Amino acid sequence: MSDSSAPSQPQGELVIRTIAMPADTNSNGDMFGGWMVSQMDLGGAIYARNVSRSRITTVAIDAMTFIHPVYVGDIVSCHAALLKVGRTSIRIEVEAWAQRAKGGEHVHVTKGTFTYVAIDDAGRPQPVHRT
Ligand SMILES: CC(C)(COP(=O)(O)OP(=O)(O)OC[C@H]1O[C@@H](n2cnc3c(N)ncnc32)[C@H](O)[C@@H]1OP(=O)(O)O)[C@@H](O)C(=O)NCCC(=O)NCCS
């Protein structure tokens, strides 16, 4: 089902850009949802690391919405925007867009909220030193 509240262009900073490859397809021949989540998690982590300037780890992924399928050959981009900086956590909205291999149309395909925690060398939460 399409999302009428979806923005008409990407919101936030470009953090990942890649091509959807056949190895990551589901049984329908479209891109596997887990691959999309993985790209978005990587993109959100890049953004969170730049905010915290420390190691971070993913603590939660919420409100994932798969709006449209992604096809092999699409150029997939992830865009991240800061929602909230807590004491040790950083919440980020991540959108994924696909530029269709056929026709070049840009489509908002997926969105979700990713929460990361700044951690020390032992993996314990530490305060975010916001830049
Ligand atoms: C992330 C981790 C270090 C947090 O440790 P913890 O002892 O639970 O830490 P805390 O309870 O102090 O919570 C730390 C922060 O995370 C937030 N948090 C914890 N669970 C959360 C959840 N489910 N959703 C959103 N935020 C959450 C807390 O609110 C807190 O934020 P704040 O300091 O900004 O207020 C620990 O849970 C962990 O190592 N998890 C595994 C992470 C991992 O392997 N990720 C990769 C997945 S494959």
The CATH class assignment is Alpha Beta
Q: Which whole number gives the mean pLDDT?
A: 94
> Kindly, what is the distance between the CA atoms of the first and last residues, rounded to a whole number of angstroms?
39 Å
N-to-C SSE string, H for helix and E for strand = EHEEEE
Ions, cofactors and other ligands present here are: coenzyme A
The total tally of domains equals 1
C-alpha-based Rg, rounded: 15 Å
Structural class: alpha+beta
Provide the CATH superfamily: Hotdog Thioesterase
Helix % is 10-25%
Which fold does the CATH topology refer to?
Answer: Thiol Ester Dehydrase, Chain A
Number of helices: 1
Low-confidence stretches: none
Total number of strands: 5
What is the CATH-assigned architecture? Roll
Largest sheet: 5 strands, antiparallel
